[in-house]
Here is the input.
Amino acid sequence: MTTTQMMKGILDGCLLAIIKDKEVYGYELAEKLEGYGFNSFSEGTIYPLLMRMQKEELVTSTLKKSTAGPKRKYYSLTRKGEQELINFMERWEYLKGNVNRVLNHEAKND
Amino acid sequence: MKSTAVNLSSKSKSFLEDLRVYLFSSGKNSDGIESIVEELEVHLMEAEKKGKSIDNIIGQSPKEYMDQISNEMTTDYRSWFKYIVIIIFGAFSFTIINDLFKGNLSYSLLELIGHVCIAAIFILGIFSAFKYVSANNISRGKEFAIYYVLGMLPLGLYIGLIFFNRIIETPVIQFGTTWTNITAIITFVFLIAISWWARSWVVIIILALLTLPDYLLSQFALHDDTQLIVGTLISFGGIAVYLFITSKMSKFD
Here is the structure.
């Protein structure tokens, strides 16, 4: 299994978390992910995810003018999105705890 | 596209154009298409400024990426329906106007059904070809061949229809003078509405060039061959001149 496959689903939560901090547009979002260490995925994958999240009303978007070129689409969390982020954090804690225990346990028995 | 697109590499530009065509042929809503294409344009511009190439951004194959985007968009059957109706009526109007010069209209059932079927096959063909060409990297020659075959397809089907119409008897629907006039009016209104909507008179001008010379020439006592040759020359010469003028004009815009 590659990192990309593992990333699916997790990326959604990361996007929500970044958007919650600050209203961002697509490119900024990709750069932030990269800044946190995610550098092996193709940046474009965030757009289908953003589209789905918008359809599910987890995020909303507004177009804003930029000096550098065409209008940028800024995303922000909806109330539903905030709730989804909380759910994601719970799921992640649960997964992280379990996976770590499994891995550490195996390491001990080796 | 807007002038900002100039800053993009040609590879990115053609990807965005392909994406637009791909989504359009997949029946997606045009506002939605515009929105995602613009968003990706911003991304590609900023990424290219930092020296990243489009391959780092869309990854995998362009087709897979286009599919991912496409899957997140709802299919807009209403606009599909709109195009289908326009193409079917458009095809009909060419036949109808040609036949109007010959007097009252009359069509066999086979002809009527055949016209709709041919238009439907043609539309499906065009949309699948657009989708295929935009999502796959194919050579110019192959692309040309696909559109050539596609262009010949309705011609072949029409010849087939004319042939079968002669050997298979189906009920003939005769349009009286009133119905012929009503059909003529509806056809003209439709053509004007389409031209107004598309802000282009190309359909009406080409239609006029294809039908009027033959009709006007038939008013003179010309030899059949002469009429055919002169008519064809005026029609295609006229279309060539028209296309030349419009291409000149669009360059000055």
About this structure: Chain A has a mean pLDDT of 87. The longest strand of chain A covers residues 59-64. Chain A has one domain: 3-109.
